[in-house]
Structure prediction request, 308 residues.
Amino acid sequence: MGRAQVAVMTFLEENKAIVQRGHVPILLPWNEAIGVGVASGDGVTTNLVSGFNYVHFSSPVKEWIKLYGFHINFTPVSVVCAFSNQTERHVWVPFFHTDLASMAGIFTQANPVLPFFRPIDIPPFSRIQIILMNLGTTITDTLITLVGVRMREEIACSS
Amino acid sequence: MYPFFELFRDYIAAILSKYKDYRPIELTTAIGFAGVASELSTVFTPPVDADCLLVAAHVDFSNSGVVVRIEDTSSGYQWNVLQSTGTTTVQGTPVTAIAGVTTQVMPLLGLVIPFFLSRQSKLKMDFRNSAAGATTGGLWTWAGLKLLS
Prediction:
């Protein structure tokens, strides 16, 4: 069985209830932008202040999410990070000195959304924990974006 | 080009199998920024008289401070979840997370999963210019397939 078939079979198995109701599971683009750091005071941007440590969580949603990668809209000089999926007793970055640039794509790079080797499943109502520490100078206008696919029951249909 | 399309090959093939043929389509929308910091601009993709499968996006400027919210007007599906921090309101996803930029190696950035845009529907795109170093003008292009029945 090929990779694609495995993915579809796994998806159908996970969403058996939906399929049994005769609904069509639809895969939709999903992304979440999180202002990381502290509010800058202008109402729309956040800053990663030098020497500070920040903890953020993605928002829980009621559907399965397949997370494909992260994007950041700033250049992270000396920003270290740790990530984990809240449903697992497992931290992706156990020692908290991993460069953020090794986990997230930067907007100036050829691949602005740095993909994981395999997509990460986020179960309904779970969250991704994001911990950042800025060991360099203060960085302004800091957004981290989670990019993935949302699996939803049929939302529109024409025949 | 699009590393995860392989995973969804059957899903995409199932959509294409419902149609007789397909043609390339490029849906370009002028954002119309006046170059004012944090200004807002709401634009729509042009309506198409056929179903479309949007595969990738492009913007003609490199400004990671510009953010966008996207909504399908027929289904109401919002692409973005936005999380504010403290007194800051996050008003969109950086355009550079969704669209490729003219000056990049890959000026068309593929979506993780192609988006099915039904006939005569439109994508509503709410842009916010960056708080510093605002962009003027701006073009956003969706690239994909027009599905012919």
Remarks:
- Residues 41 and 100 of chain B are 20 Å apart (CA to CA).
- Chain B touches chain A through 53 residues (CB under 8 Å).
